[in-house]
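S2.1 Query sequence (MarR family transcriptional regulator)
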Amino acid sequence: MSFNVKELNKYWTDIYFHLHYPHKEKITHQVIRILQLVEKKPNIGINEVACYLDVSHNTASENVKRIIERNYLMKERDPSDERKVILKLSDIGREVLQRNTSLDENKLTDIWESMSSDERSLVESAFKILRERAKNVPVD
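Output structure tokens follow.
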């Protein structure tokens, strides 16, 4: 059996399409990317956001300012360097990120419970392996 990246991507997008939460907020993809960055990487500041999005510091700063105004992010001073501001997800931001990037846990539970223990083990192993390998891919 040959590996087909396009097929794997289709599986992934089909899974997300059928199992995502209903979207409640009007939110841009860029806002989601910023929230994900803050969730996944510790001690993120405006400079890291600008580099990640490949935008100017001013653009990143304006985007973050609007996200803070929506109460999705908070600013804190870095305890090791008071000059640096680090970004943290608020509880609301965490919920918004969950609804806009995760699979609906009720739907997923229903599917999980319909699987045999061998199927569950296979799916869990495959996702763990894919996640660990994904962590080692350089960020563009």
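Residues 1 and 29 are 35 Å apart (CA to CA). The first helix runs from residue 5 to 19.
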